[in-house]
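Recall that a protein's primary structure is simply its ordered list of amino acids. Everything else, from secondary elements to tertiary packing, is in principle encoded there. The following example makes that idea concrete.
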Amino acid sequence: MNALWSEARVKVSHRLAMHLHVDLFRLRNATPMVTFTFDDLPKSAVTTGAGLLETHGARGTFYVSGGLVSAGTPEWDTGDAADVLALHRRGHEIGCHTFSHQRACDLDETSFADEIERNRNYFRALDPGIEIDTFAYPFGYGSFARKQQLRSTFQTCRSIVPGVNFGSVDLQFLRAMPLIDRQMTRGGIERAFDEAETNNGWLIFYGHDVTERPSPYGCSPDLLNYALEAASRRKIAALTMGEAFRCARA
């Protein structure tokens, strides 16, 4: 019964985070934008994923939990500290999860702040030049109670609620589209770009591993390359979260 109540509370908190805004921000980008994000540092995202972005002259945002770096998972081989440094030095953006990958909705204000600070300290120890300005909710579960806290800590926070961002948006709960083989097709990619062009929007993709046989949460190199080629064909700039936010403030 306690477990059922806990999950019901999580779902309510997530829905409140979706629909109740801390404040709204008017996007002022001159042209449509796209951002490619990867969660949890699968080794294949560091190698194949980042490599494909670089081939297209683009860089991505990689959301990392310091406590998961070098940790094995059933779904993929995880990158190590050298991979985090390599991404940073190759011009990719390092973003923040909670240090131990706990859901924001499961943490009180103090515990959440501690998790964020542990992650910041982890990155500072690797390279003081790694600045963390963007957050993504672990497992995609938002928390209205934590949104005000996030507002004072990060420029942007990414959810996994599907959609393209345009007009007035909730920076603490930006929408994103799955770049995941089981959830996205080439047609879906084209429709997402259509919406971004129609509304002068900010399209954010999210995924995990990038392999020929991806996990249920990842994509093939072919699907990622198709999305990158679609952006190039439409002349839509592929920017990191930080770069896109700066364009949105222009």
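The longest strand covers residues 33-39. Helices lie at 2-19, 43-55, 81-89, 109-126, 144-151, 186-198, 221-233, 241-248.
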